[in-house]
Design goal:
The chain is built from 13 helices and two strands. It has a two-stranded antiparallel ribbon with strand order 1-2. It has helices spanning 39-70, 87-94, 99-129, 135-143, 150-161, 167-172, 187-212, 216-224, 229-240, 242-257, 261-267, 276-284, 291-322; strands at residues 73-74, 82-83.
Length: 323
Amino acid sequence: MTGTPVHRRTTAATDGERTAVPKSPVRRARRPGARRYTRRDLVLLGVLLGIPILLDLALIWGPTLASVGLSFTTWDGVGDIRWVGLKNYDDLFTSYPQFWPAVRHNLLWLAFLGLLAAPFGLLLAVLIDRGVRFSRFYQSTLYMPVVLSLAVVGFIAQLLLSRDQGALNAVLGSKNPTDWLGDPGINIWMVLLAACWRHTGYVMILYLAGLKSVDPSLKEAAAIDGASERQAFFRVVLPTLRPVNVIVGVITVIESLRAFDIVYAVNKGRNGLELLSVLVTDNIIGEAGRIGFGSAIAVTLLLVSLGFIVTYLVQELRGEQQR
C-alpha cells in the first residue's frame, strides 16, 4: 500500500533472499587526553626523584668535586686551607716513593683479574651451562665467595697463609715455613689469588645469565652448517655476549683500581702490597693529616679509572656500530 513504511529486516530471509542491512555510523575511539597530575602526584614524584638525586650529589659528586678542589691546596683538616696549585701533583710524581710501586700493583691487579679471573669465569659458565653433573652444587659453591667482602677474604687468607699458624704451612710441614704474606716478593701473588677466587664467581654468574639468553636456534644452525662446538662458540655464541663482555670489562677495571679491603686486612697495605687506595687512606685519615696531598692521589686514581673505562666503552660502542 502506498504510504506505508517498509521495514527492512537485518538478517537474511529464510528463503535465501538477501536483504539490505542499514549501515550504522562508526564511532571513533577518542584518544585519552594528557593526564593532569594532582598536587599529591607532584609531591610524590618530587620525593621519589629528589631523595636519590640529593643522596647522589651528597655522597658521590659532592666528595668528588671537593677532592678535586682540595688537591690544589694544603690542609691538615684543622687549620686554614692554603692554595698551592700543582705542587701536590709535582711531589706525588717526583718525590713520593710509594706512588709508583702502588701504580704498578694496581696495573698488575688489573692484568691478573682481566687475563686470568675473567676468562676462567667464562670457562666455568660454559661448563655449567652445558648441564654437567652437580652443576647446581658447583654454581652455588663458586658463587659463595662473591657474598663475602674483600675484608673477610683477607682474613681467610691470613688463616690459610700465615707463617706460623697458617693451614698451608701446616700441610707442607716444612721446618722453615714460608712467610706467604710477609715476603714482599710473593705476598702480592697470594693476595691476587685470593682476589681472583672471589672475582671468578662474580664473572661466572654474569656469563651464565648471558648464555641463558642466547637463542638455541643459532647453535642449531651452526651445527647444521657443520661447525664444531668450538667454532660455534667463538663465532656464534661469543659475539652475542658482547653486552656481557662490556659489563665484565667495566667491573674488572673498577674492582682492580678500587681494591683496598683485602690488602688492608692483611698488613694495612704495606711491605709489598701498596695500592693507590691505601695511599689515599693513609694520607687523609692517617697521622700525617695531608688531606690536600691525599686528594691529589684520589684525583689521579679517578682519572686513571675514567681513562680505562671510557676507552673500553668507546671501543665496544664502535664495534657495535660497525656491526
